[in-house]
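Two folds, back to back.
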Amino acid sequence: DILRHIHAKMTLRDAARATCASHAFRHNWICRPNLTFSLGTLGLNRNASRDVITRDLISKIDLIMQNHSGIGVKTLDIDLYSCDNIDFAYLDSWLRIAVTPGIEELILTLPLPSIVFENALPIISVYNFPCSLLSNGSGNSIQYLNLCYCTLRPTAGLGCLRSLTRLHMSCTRITGDELWCLLSNSPALVCLKLLHCEEIISLKIPSLLQRLRFLEVAYCDRLQVVESNAPNLTTFYFAGFLGQISLGGSLQLKTLRMICFRQTNIVCYARQNLLSIA
């Protein structure tokens, strides 16, 4: 138990070195609870070519994950932003291993979408996050979900994410209806951040989000409507083209910050439409 505690506190680089030196540490590796993978944590050369970075980062993460039991994972943080042309089968495999009941934090930062060709036609390749992983009991424990450059298509069968308090999505493909489905199953949500989510046209926050305090919506260029019925929202940040914004259900609002494009009189707009609820 002492060795397991020591091993869990090490950085991934130090943990890997200890594993090579000690059979006892090697056994503890398979149950390491916090897995954070990036160029820095794995000690890889940031100045290498993207092909080399992709090869080395994928191979190291895969070696670690294939030797992990999947038991007791609390945090999985994978940063592949510096990679090119990832085989998404690796990601599917890693998530199946680590996203199990008991996981609390899941952070995925993927590369910019790439162009692939199918039947001589160009197709944008974006990772489709497997929502089914959150329906097997893992959704009951997850507290923080952060997705960057993914596609997320939740359905009614998602189940309740009763512990989810923070949801951050950047450059994530999800529609307003799909987001509504996700939010409707996240009653404990406290913080919601949406950045560059281009498929959202109408963002509606259900009144059942009694604990939601912080809402940030930025650079979602197709967004036309923001409607919040969360009664205890205290902070709202917005950046983008100003459409219809209704915070009528947010009677506790204290902080309002807006950066609006092509809006000549934002102060007048705020007074007429928002100030009454602040």
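---
second:
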Amino acid sequence: MEAPTILVIEDDSAVRQGVVDALTWSGYQVLAEPDGLAGRRAALAARYRLLLLDLVLPGCSGFDILESL
């Protein structure tokens, strides 16, 4: 059985890497994006079990991403 995939959208690289490391260690597949535009593209391109996103992002906000889903 394939592990669930989680999308992480976070512009702070240290926070993003920490979240990715913790989720990967817990057995999840993780896709991480560094800004709102890339995150929105990824969110619209596939289905994820969970979306973790910062609300204040360069490119577009987390609220903009949620509205587009």
